[in-house]
Amino acid sequence: EDMDISKQRAGFVAFVGAPNAGKSTAINHMVGTKVSIVSPKVQTTRTRVLGIMMKEETQIIFVDTPGIFAPKRRLDRAMVAAAWGGAADADHIVVLVDAKRGICNETQTIINTLKEQKRKAILILNKIDLVDKGTLLTLTEKLNGEEIFTDTFMVSALKGDGLDYFVDFIAQKLPQGPWLFPEDQVSDMPERLLAAEITREQLYLKLRQELPYSTTVETETWEEKKDGSIKIEQIIYVARDGQKKIILGKGGQQIKAIGANARKQLEEIMECRVHLFLFVKVRDKWSDDPERYNYWGLDY
Ligand code: GDP
Ligand code: K
Ligand code: MG
């Protein structure tokens, strides 16, 4: 069947917000599969991730960004730069606000920055499952007083409530033009990188607060077997020997559990059997290693 290219629309919609506002949760829900990992910890999303969906003749390309926060270390600075970089080129900017948390410093910084840039944005109040109507209305009024928001949506990304209204709305707003990715593509992240991210997500979910930030995961081998399964070997890099012990756990129980959960997730996403092998290695000072930044698509 011939495609009528003249009817096509496509565009970029960047999600910015404080860490943990629910940006990755919202984008995963709209795209319909996990393109960006989620955890209750800040800095889970380290680089810019595209989540791509089709709404009839419109290709909506969501740009998930690391949260905006006050950067201290080099890695932090690179993440915040990636977040603003993702927003700068987008057709529309969405500011996602955790309605329970309200207007935190990070959200105020985002609003001030957009004002300076004279950019308008769409407001999404997320986590409405956690607040009452009164709180929500007060917050909406306060935020709209900033005069940078053209439209406001109220959603629960976790439950998926309200996001379809936003999708309908944004699809109409995107410019006419040919699709920028194949119709069935959901992300720009290579499978090897996504597979490493899935394991990193499990580390975030399972381990103590301070550990994951000094941890990185890399997919070393990726082998498609004749029986349709995939063999994946990954290395978890840590900064210190003590961290290695924590990840392995007593008798290797911890890494076993991490591997089992990651494998389950991968099998769901890849829709085939996965054999996942995890190794833990100590590497000093990885967060100052230019090669690692390159690997994540960040500028050193
Ligand atoms: P990000 O840092 O902005 O990408 O936020 P994440 O998507 O990683 O979510 C941070 C945490 O908030 C996770 O534990 C999510 O499960 C949780 N979360 C996201 N959206 C909602 C929501 O609508 N309601 C509730 N109750 N929790 C949410
Ligand atoms: K998070
Ligand atoms: Mg995120």
Automatic annotation (TrEMBL):
Output a single Gene Ontology CC term carried by this record. plasma membrane
Q: Where is this region: G4?
A: 126-129
Its domain of life reads Bacteria
Q: Which GO terms describe its biological process?
A: ribosomal small subunit assembly
Region (G5) spans which residues? Answer: 155-157
Region labeled G3 — which residues? 64-67
Region G1, as annotated, extends over 17-24
State the family named in the UniProt similarity comment for this chain: Belongs to the TRAFAC class TrmE-Era-EngA-EngB-Septin-like GTPase superfamily. Era GTPase family.
Q: What is this protein called?
A: GTPase Era
What gene is this protein a product of?
era
